[in-house]
Amino acid sequence: MKEELIVSGRMNDMIDPHLHIWHWQISLYLFLGGMAAGILAIAALYFIRGREKDYRTAVRITPFLAPLLLILGLLALFIDLRHKLFFWQLYTNIKLQSPMSWGAWTLMVITPVSFIWCALHIRELFPRWDWKFKFLISLEKFFNRYKLTLAWVMLIYAIILGIYTGILLSAFNARPLWNTSILGPLFLASGLSAGAAATLLISKDKKEIRQFARIDLVLLGIELFLIIHMFMGFLASTQVQIDAAELFLGGSYTMTFWVFVVFMGMFLPAILEIMELGKYKIPVLVPAVLVLFGSLMLRFVIVNAGQVSRWLY
Structural domain boundaries of the chain? Predict the structure, then answer.
């Protein structure tokens, strides 16, 4: 952990609880990484299940967003580093007990895998696409031959990435709000929901849109369940964790969290999706954008509120 703090330049921030240790870049990185993880996990899962033809957008087209999201997320993370020239030190060894090491190596795998997956489906966007070099043609044939294996690798690492975005915070024991095992599953569910929303925005197939509206409804329900469970755990724990929960239950983050995250990001899009499934004409754009907004706000609120919560001295 010490080496990681030196790389990030946050050693003094960790010592002084009154300083903010995260900037907006971290919240953005957690959102973009989670959304990319959700997109890739859904694509891999439906390919493994043999539903590629039924959900063509989710498997072949939406994943084109993932490399861009990962690059932008890594750029935001890089901007946040104080000692930018030392980021390579995270790749000089593997520490199984370190969330940052897990994250660094997971990104090292999932990023090229996402590019390979897009390359295998590039003709979906450019029908006349043709590789100019023989070695690229050979690589395409190779990965198509082992596409199922590639999908399993992508699914596993996408799930790890989605959970990691929450574990990265929960590993900081000095912040009571973050010190909960719920953040990993919560951020994974939120990332999957954002991935489903991305497919809703892109797809033109009515059957696919209805299917992903159902999926998103389930994921939103899971998110709400995990949030309630998280608060119940805090309120049944130590005083500092009760204080952390009270930030959202009458404290300074109450309005922001319940209005922007829960109501606008969960309840409202869920109601609109239920109406859409009930044959009402609801523009798909509205609930999908609200889900993405709620997913982004969840990271911003949790990251910022976590800086306020601290142990008593």
Answer: 2-308
The length of the chain, given as a count of residues: 313
| Residue for token pair 């990965």 | 143
* Domain 2-308 annotated CATH 1.20.1540.10: no
Measured N-to-C along each axis, helices 147-170 and 134-145 cross at an angle, to the nearest 10 degrees, of 80
How many other CB atoms are found less than 10 A from the CB of residue 32? 27
H helix or E strand, kind and range, residue 230: helix 206-235
Residues 6+ apart with CB under 8 A from 166: 182, 183, 184, 185, 186, 187, 188
Instruction: Note the pLDDT tens digit of each residue in 14-59.
Output: 333 444 445 688 899 999 999 999 999 999 999 999 999 999 999 9
Q: Give the HSE-up count for residue 283: Cα atoms under 13 Å, Cβ half-sphere.
A: 4
Helix, strand, coil percent content, the chain, rounded in steps of 5: 75, 0, 25
For residue 3, what pLDDT band results from cuts at 50, 70 and 90?
very low
